[in-house]
Amino acid sequence: MKSLHKVLSALGAACAVFAASAHASADPIPETSIWSLPHDASAEGHRVDWLIKSTNVFVFLLFVVMCVWIGYAVFKHNKDHKAEYDHGDSKHHISIALGVSALIFFVVDGNLWFNSSIDVNSVFWNHGAADQKPNAVRIEVNAHQWAWDARYAGPDGKFNTPDDVVTLNDIRVPIGAPIVLQLASTDVIHNFYLPNFRIKQDAMPGMINRMWFQAKETGEFDIGCSQHCGTHHYKMKGRLTVLEPEAYKNWIAELSAQKVQAYNEKDKGANWGWEWKHSEDTSAPHGAGEPRKAASATEAEHDPKVLAQSRGGA
Amino acid sequence: MSDRVMTKADIEAAEHLQHAHVEPKDFLSRYVFSIDHKYIAKQFLWAGLLFLLFGGLLAMLIRWQWAFPSQPVPLVGKALFPNSGGAITPPAYSTIFTTHGLIMIFFAITPIMIGTFGNFCIPLMIGARDMAFPKLNMYSFWVFMVSQLLMIASFCVELGSAAAGWTTYPPLSTNVGTPGAGQSLVVLALFVTGISSIMGAINYITTVIRFRAPGMTWFRMPATVWGLWLTAILNALFVPVLGSAGLLLLFDRTFGTQFFVAGAAGGIGDPILFQHLFWIFGHPEVYILILPIWGFVIDFMSFFARKPAYWYKGSVYAMISVSVLSAVVYGHHMFVTGMSPLLGQAFMLLTLVISVPAEILFLNWLHTMWKGSIRLTVPMLFALGTVFVFGLGGLTGIYLATISTDLYLHDTMWVVGHFHLTMASAAFLGSFGALYFWFPKMYGRATNETLGKVHFWFSVIGVTAVFCGQLIAGYNGQQRRLFDPFQYTYIKHLRELNKYTSYFAFALGAGQLAFVVNFFHSLFAGKKAEKNPWDVGTLEWTDCESPPVYHNFDRVPIVLRGPHEYNNPEVLAKLGKDWVGQSEQLPGEDIGIDAIAAE
Q1: Count of CB atoms situated within 10 Å of the CB of B431
Q2: What is the ipTM of this complex?
Q3: Do A79 and B364 touch (CB under 8 A)?
Q4: Which residues make beta-bridge pairs with A193?
Q5: pLDDT of residue A9
Q6: Rounded to whole angstroms, how far apart are CA atoms B321 and A213?
Q7: pLDDT tens sequence across A249-303
Q8: CB atoms within 10 A of CB A84
Q9: Neighbour tally for B534: CB within 10 Å
Q10: What's the distance, CA B406 to chain centroid?
Q11: Mean per-residue pLDDT, B387-398
């Protein structure tokens, strides 16, 4: 009787969640123009877009100069034109060549390097700072051929406990909060890719990678795999749903309650999570860049054993 | 100027060192196991062209799939994919794009560009009678042949050929992801072709150092030889790294070691170690595939603009700097593996620094054209096309060198478009330009100019349209290697783009027929070539017949000047022509040993 009750209540919870998800789900809005970057839904995506677009201007100018130069030379300095005997190795010529190269390097490459360094250190790879924000949402993602398992810590804030929320190809996050992900893989290398958030990160077997992002609007977005991971790589698609904070809270609470009831300690396949990896030192000069490799070398020794159980874990 | 003082003894030593081989009379040692560099060059050419056709047809299948996902392939579909009614299946697709990449890089471009022109041009252009190690040269080809057979065999085993992508990342490339024997055979084929490359590289390096004709100083060498020589050095240094990665991977696949295996399959190996090894080789590899082309372009710009190559030394120094830098930039391929930000920034800076020598090369090409007297011959058209596509490819590469923009563009079609413009299109157009240029010397027959121009326009418009189409797809975020890209909502609108890109690809493929017809027609029925149809001054045109005699030079030439003396006023006044041979004596010019020594 007890077990029947458990099944029934689980079914009830599932129905509620299904209703909630049906309410929330609308397909991502398709793009229309092939000449633009996909819609930017990220609070920090404008950094990437600005850098790409400013570089587009430089690249376009250089390309036009090259084409005009070649075109002019081919048509005007043709076989009827008398060639000038010039080895171009005078000091004057060399300083012009070096000067132009240096100018292009400092303007175009300099713009890229300078801005990218700031963006990477202060934002995109500054996982520690994002993780320490009080409203940060932590999610563990385990990739396997060919799906994404996601795990939320639930009300107790601890991973791998009965109140964890575990989903398959379905990640929901609140708007306006930093979303911090730790990524791992069961089998081969996958790559967690959010085109509308201008970010991607490999999910590696035997180590844990980090990434973070923050949504600036609600809606539905594609999660893609961008590392060839076998025959059905193209089908490894997930759904990212950005909700209002209140809706997110309700969703996670509902799902967590359901998971507590459905929790089975012996089902090792479902309990694939790991203890959250905290970043060691956020006061380092370059923000919170963790010595990733050093950390993962020790992680690799115990994580695979946990991850080994995760196939079909959701 | 002269970094090698020539004495009478030098000239005698050169004659002694380069004793003329007697031309063999028996069929086998003449036409099969030949040790003649010119003949081995032709063997590499045929092998490379056949695999270029193979790799090209695989590309057509990929383009078909992207234009018309899962629809039956016309003509060949039923025969190739009988179980799916003629449509490409996901596993077949993985094999097709994996082997397309590997075949094009290792079995088409490498043998054509390095095997053919390295073998043919180096001895002739430096005034040598053969390679330093003619037998090693022959072994290099036959070892290459073995690797080709392994590659072909991989298609005939159960589960088909390799399917883990050309980059062969483990654990996908271990038994975890690709359990078939085909993947092992392909990794073995890469290992064996690496041995062939190293053999060739040692030969090229030694030949250039030891066998330059008297007076052929380093900066009198044609840029072609510089490019091929630097490529050989990179090959000798970095192909062994690929070999080591391949060997460890083979151990993982066959003997159950776990160098690269991690995750649920057990093992505490490190998949990232493979990526380090692969890209320590892989990034120099893209320069291996472009340095000879840069050399051709520097020379052709000068030859056909009838002007000295602009700041020739600068171009050579730029090529040397790129070769050195090529070893320390590879990390940009691994920005999304979880790299430390400090390391990432170092790799970003080093990668961007490569644009400086590249800009110098570009400026020198453009300046060489400027105020020239440009002859739009077929080789010159291909050289101009190379500059154009390499310009596009180079400019689109800086987005990938930069971490934050790469976080978005990494592993998208942007990458595919970018590297196909540089190491595929530029290498392909440059190699065809070189083939049209040296064909008369190789086979003693001229090629048809009209067909050559048809081939050029189909090729240059084709590669530009196809790979710009891919760049646009990548800009929209389309990942590479998707069997059916239109699963994703944000790229559903790219269906038409992918379709039109494919139409251009089919036109590009069809346009190659002009080359096939031209090649065979010229081979058997072409007009007999003159000794020096292009009026250029390098040794293979001035001191050799078309085709050259077996031992190349009756007398080892004495080199008096650089390769780019066009419209020199003194030559115009004394000889009444706009060019002068590297070994050609001007009236009243003292070529006495002492004079050269004094220089």
Answers
A1: 26
A2: 0.92
A3: no
A4: A200, A224
A5: 56
A6: 39
A7: 999 999 998 888 888 888 877 888 999 988 754 333 333 333 333 333 334 334 4
A8: 16
A9: 20
A10: 26
A11: 96
Average pLDDT over residues B62-80: 94
A226-B326-B99 Cα angle (round to 5): 45
Classified as helix, coil or strand, A235 is helix
Cα–Cα nearest to A287, from A150, A159, A124, A135: A124
How many Cβ atoms from other residues are within 10 Å of residue B5's Cβ? 12
Per-residue DSSP letter, A135: T
Residue closest to B551 by CA, chosen among B126, B115, B36? B36
- DSSP collapsed to 3 states, B251-291: HHHHCCCCCCCCCCCCCCCCHHHHHHHHHHHHHHHHHHCCH
B450 in reach of chain A (CB within 8 A): no
Question: Shortest CA distance to B14 belongs to which of B538, B541, B592, B555?
Answer: B555
Please state, for a pLDDT cut of 90, what percent of chain A lies above it: 69
Please count the other Cβ atoms lying within 10 Å of the Cβ belonging to residue B25: 7
CA atoms of B438 and B224, how far apart (whole Å): 12
> Considering only CA atoms, which of A145, A276, A270, A250 is closest in space to residue A205?
A145
Residue type, B243: G
Q: Is A99 exposed, middle or buried (0-12, 13-18, 19+ CB in 10 A)?
A: exposed
Of the candidates B338, B481, B567, the beta carbon closest to that of A202 is on B338
B480 touches chain A (CB under 8 A): yes
Token pair of A134 as six digits: 């009080």
Mean pLDDT of B63-72: 95
* pLDDT score recorded for residue B283: 95
Q: Do B481 and A189 touch (CB under 8 A)?
A: no
The whole-angstrom separation of Cα B476 and Cα B466 is 16
Which of these, A278, A223, A167, lies nearest to A28 by C-alpha position? Answer: A223
Coil, strand or helix at A49: helix
Beta bridge partners of A241: A172, A220
Cα A180 to the center of its chain, rounded Å: 10
Burial of residue A246 (CB within 10 Å: 0-12, 13-18, 19+) is: exposed
Q: Which of residues 555-574 of B touch A (CB under 8 A)?
A: 564, 566-569
pLDDT in tens, A54-67: 999 999 999 999 99
Q: Which of A32, A224, A289 sits opposite B479 (nearest CB)?
A: A224
Contact B502, B63 (CB under 8 A): yes
Contact B563, B220 (CB under 8 A): yes
Closest residue by Cα to residue B112 from B400, B442, B546: B442
Picking from A39, A52, A63, A228 by the largest number of B CB atoms within 10 A of its own CB, the best residue to mutate is: A228
- Residues A178, A143 contacting (CB under 8 angstroms): no
pTM: 0.91
- CATH homologous superfamily of domain A136-276+292-307? Cupredoxins -  blue copper proteins (2.60.40.420)
Who contacts B127 (Cβ-Cβ below 8 Å, separation ≥6)?
A: B212, B213, B216, B539, B543, B553, B556, B557, B559, B583
